[in-house]
Amino acid sequence: MNAQPPATTCVRHPNRPTGLACTRCGRPACPECLRPAAVGQHCVDCVREARSQVRPIRTVAGAPAATSATPIVTYGLIASNVLVYGITAAQAGSLADNFRSELFLRWAMIPRLVADGDWFRVIGSGFLHWGPLHLALNMFALYFVGFQLEPYLGRTKMLAIYLVALIGGSAGAMLLEPANTIGAGASGAVYGMFGAIAVLLIRLRINATQILVIIAINVLLSLSLSGVSLWVHLGGLVAGTIATIGVLFLPEWVHAERPETDRIIGWVAIAGVGAVSIGLVGLGAALLS
User: Fold this and answer.
1) Buried (b) or exposed (e) across 88-99, using 16+ Cβ within 10 A?
2) Do 133 and 56 touch, CB atoms closer than 8 A?
3) pLDDT, tens digit, 9 for 90 and up, residues 169-215
4) 124 pLDDT exceeds 50?
5) β-strand 41-43 against 34-36: which pairing, if any?
6) HEC states along 246-258?
7) What secondary structure does DSSP assign to 56-122, as a single string?
8) For residue range 125-140, what is the model confidence (pLDDT) as tens digits?
9) 10 Å Cβ neighbour count for 83?
């Protein structure tokens, strides 16, 4: 009488006899450890391994597509600007004359005071606004461009380029505005976002005429309206545009072949533009000193 061969058991549950096996690795597995596949069924270990090998979907800027859909940074920047405006309005006891508040006077961009050591004005002035209309116009523009940019650039690059553009605008003020000029507003950073979205459209091979016309109109307004700083706007525009070119085009120009390298090159470009902008702020301060 022939002896029966021992029953195979599940590789994950040795106490469970099974006549099933994974069609990928061939190991025996119980029904609980198998998942339907296009051909046969795969064990949970093979399913997990296959998922780990799937490359995540990324945008042209290297940002994970799934985590970039909601413009959290855009909302956060808008909230920060509104909060700072609320504080200045409360301190001044007026919505329209909020520029009389202590915070406004401490943070406003005054090149002479920056040269004297008030370096925080370089960043802080970008979160101040002259009354509710100024705030509303800038926040509407920020929402318009941020809502479209952030899903492609990703949250961290979006924030970094915004801050680089803000510093670029301050550099324009330090170099080319009168020493005692008082400046405030997110306009320089917003102009940088305008430049960024123009670069993105060109990278995606989408007609960028509309945004270029908007930029041109805003530059003409900066030239014609009193009390509007052309140099802050142009400084932010140039810094934001160059930083975004570095993120979206520089990896291709240097023939980078790996996503990790693309991201590193993009960050190097942003850091480089930021460093130059800070250097120009320092140059302006040295000239005023």
Assistant:
1) bbeebeeeeebb
2) no
3) 999 999 999 999 999 999 999 999 999 999 999 998 889 898 899 89
4) yes
5) antiparallel
6) HHHCHHHHCCCCC
7) PPB-TTS-BTTTSSS-HHHHHHHHHHHHHHHHHHHHHT-STTGGGSHHHHHHSB-HHHHHTT-TTHH
8) 999 999 999 999 999 9
9) 11
